TrEMBL record:
PANTHER family in alphabetical order: THIAMINE-MONOPHOSPHATE KINASE
Annotated binding of Mg(2+) 1, by residue: 142-143, 218
Protein name in UniProt: Thiamine-monophosphate kinase
UniProt entry keywords in alphabetical sequence: ATP-binding, Kinase, Magnesium, Metal-binding, Nucleotide-binding, Thiamine biosynthesis, Transferase
Gene: thiL
Enzyme Commission number(s) of this protein: 2.7.4.16
Organism: Abyssibacter profundi
Length: 413
């Protein structure tokens, strides 16, 4: 039996029709652009920003329930169901959802029945036990998001959950892999139940979009930090950064710079257009595009640090240079309007801003149109930005964008 759709190339080892287990994975089809529609459709809570970490009234301790105090820590309050606390701040009308410990948070927001037989042991034991497809190569990647560094403190919790999953899935996409499993290491300044609920909703929505499953993690106290590990599979050779060839064309799955524009707008106190903010807060991993590129493209990388910075990784790994078309990447109308209002040029956002999560691939010219039409069928707007050459370094066709070389690309140190 062969599972159709997403994992077209995977033999299906699940017993047919076994109740409660997924017996096939529906086709991913087109990458759904931005994920915005999903959120706009109200599946996720948008009101659980982390702006005010002080517990809202129904999170405060009320009534006479037991208080647990651990050495050196503030009291932890037990979950109670209604009717609770007529005398408390919520007046008994809302039940008393009080702050809880990490085990309650895990049980309530993260632990779910396993979706597939390949998860032999999921959340709840010392480690997850997973069964990769026979003959599959396992892909493993980790990325961390730190408050103030990767995201603003008041970003809505559901968007943050979505993004934490998607930026990791993007690395699997760049390798041409099929996403399967995720683990989540969550460091929280406090156990805000409503915030964690919204975060978990966003994370789960992203995972479900690509048929991946949360199988484990960790919760600790500290400055808000989210570490995710994503595991995927491929039966064929994975796409890498290092197998590009001179003469290959460089193609992007879509335009870049919107997220960086949104960051610049927010830093200047301007509310960015929704088209920019959506790209920043609800990125879309190009998983289907990456799978399509496997077998057609020679090399790929996802654009997290900026087009030029990530192109540089690909060039170094493949020992090549590139000739870029300076006019290939244009600002969208919203980017240009924001740039004008800030008195800035949009080119640095486009070429070095980062946080884009488009794929950049090197594909031989004779296969480029095939790949571009598959991507277009997936709802993407692919762009050719140049070609690879033997001579190391960058050459520009047209006027090279004015970019400060010191700040070209997102770097931590
Ligand atoms: N602390 C670490 N220990 C081991 N490997 C690491 C560490 N940090 C990064 N790497 C590896 O270095 C490579 C580049 O990492 P990074 O620049 O973060 O890639 P990406 O932009 O795809 O997330 C990856 O293969 C990653 O697994
Ligand atoms: C508050 C804030 N500052 C900066 C950014 C921009 N930004 C955040 S993450 C990122 C790039 C990716 O981060 P990194 O940790 O380098 O991920 P990796 O390349 O390892 O995937 C960028 C450009 C942002 N989105 N929000
Ligand atoms: Mg990384």
């Amino acid at each position: 039996m062969v599972c159709r759709g997403v994992a077209r190339d995977y033999p299906c080892r699940r017993p047919a029709g076994q109740p409660g287990l997924r017996t096939s994975r529906p086709p991913l089809g087109a990458d759904r652009s931005g994920g915005a529609g999903h959120f706009a459709a109200g599946h996720l809570r948008a009101d659980a920003g982390f702006r005010n970490p002080v517990p809202r009234h129904h999170h405060r301790r009320c009534g006479t329930g037991p208080t647990i105090r651990r050495p050196g820590q503030s009291p932890l309050y037990q979950w109670r169901t209604r009717p609770r606390c007529a005398s408390g701040p919520c007046g008994g009308g809302q039940g008393c959802k009080t702050v809880t410990g990490e085990f309650e948070l895990i049980a309530r927001h993260f632990k779910r029945p396993a979706r597939s037989a390949e998860v032999r042991i999921g959340i709840g034991d010392d480690a997850a036990a997973l069964t990769p497809a026979p003959g599959a190569t396992l892909l493993v990647t980790t990325d961390t998001l730190v408050v103030g560094r990767h995201f603003r403190p008041d970003v809505p919790a559901d968007a943050l959950g979505w993004k934490a999953a998607m930026v990791n899935l993007s690395d699997l996409a760049a390798m041409g892999g099929t996403p399967r499993w995720l683990t989540l290491a969550l460091t929280l300044p406090e156990a805000d139940d409503a915030w964690v609920a919204a975060f978990a909703d966003g994370f789960r929505a992203a995972a479900e979009q690509v048929e991946a499953e949360l199988v484990g993690g960790d919760i600790t106290r500290g400055p808000l930090t989210i570490g995710v590990t994503a595991l995927g599979e491929t039966l064929d050779a994975p796409l890498t950064r290092g197998a590009a060839q001179a003469g290959d064309q460089l193609w992007l799955t879509g335009t870049t710079g919107q997220a960086a524009a949104a960051v610049a707008g927010l830093a200047a106190g301007v509310t960015p257009d929704a088209s920019l903010l959506t790209r920043l807060d609800r990125p879309q991993a190009r998983c289907a595009a990456g799978r399509a590129a496997r077998g057609l493209a020679h090399a790929a990388i996802d654009v997290s640090d900026g087009v030029l910075a990530d192109l540089d990784h690909l060039l170094k790994a493949s020992r090549l240079g590139a000739r870029l078309d300076a006019d290939a990447l244009r600002p969208t109308a919203a980017m240009q309007a924001l740039a004008d209002s800030l008195g800035e040029a949009p080119a640095p956002w486009i070429w070095t801003g980062g946080d884009d999560y488009e794929l950049l691939v090197a594909v031989p010219p004779e296969r480029a149109q095939t790949l571009a039409s598959i991507w277009a069928e997936q709802g993407l707007a692919p762009l050719c930005i140049g070609e690879l050459v033997d001579a190391p370094g960058l050459q520009w066709q047209g006027d090279a964008p004015t970019i400060d070389p010191v700040s070209s690309g997102f770097r931590h140190f």
